[in-house]
Amino acid sequence: MKEEIIIAGFGGQGVLSMGKILAYSGVMQGMEVSWMPSYGPEMRGGTANVIVILSDESISSPIVHEFDTAIILNQQSLDKFEKAVKPGGLLIYDGNGITHHPTRKDINIYRVDATAEAVKMKSVKTFNMIVLGAYLKLKGVVEMENVLKGLKKSLPERHHHLIPMNEKAILRGGEIIQEISVVE
Fold it and tell me: What is the pLDDT of residues 105-150, one digit of tens each?
């Protein structure tokens, strides 16, 4: 098994954190892992993306140009990475701020309204965990117990009291994911 993932959005949306948690989760599960972040000098408000590779075998290179899964959190990232999803692959996106929705018919497209759900949950900082939960519902590449271990490993100890809230957000993301059918 090998899963090549791109997570992309604005800085401040938890893109790199989501990738780090996924990477730590893979490590906790005994997988080979690559985590390669990329962000502009602006950080908050600028674009950010991270490539995560989870594999049962050695990873020869962290450089990937086509992905099994794209997790997209803004329009610029959708415009850039929709075409980079392998045929038959998965694209998950948050609908907030998206004006030109995905159009490919050779990939599986899902929408998770994580921004709206985080507001409903009165916890906007769990936005990225809602998105992560949606991904994990569709592709259970790592087990929830390892995700929680990864979360604990990536959060500073002073924030460990937030783990139950993040777990709730992950579970909620799995409940609200919706498949999208592209029509001409």
Answer: 999 999 999 999 999 999 888 999 999 999 999 998 999 999 999 8
pTM for this one? 0.92
How many Å apart are CA 14 and CA 75, to the nearest integer? Answer: 16
Percent of the chain as helix, strand, coil, to the nearest 5 = 40, 25, 30
What's the 3-state SS for 28-90?
Answer: HCCCEEEEEEEECCCCECCEEEEEEEEECCCCCCCCCCCEEEEEECCHHHHHHHHHHEEEEEE
Burial class (CB in 10 A: 0-12, 13-18, 19+), 100: exposed
Query: What are the structure tokens assigned to 80, written together?
Result: 């850039």
Interval 14-68: pLDDT, tens: 889 999 999 999 999 999 999 999 876 655 566 789 999 999 999 988 889 999 9
Q: In the CATH scheme, what is the code of domain 2-180?
A: 3.40.920.10
Q: How far apart are CA 51 and CA 6, in angstroms?
A: 5
Q: Identify the helix (H) or strand (E) that includes residue 143.
A: none
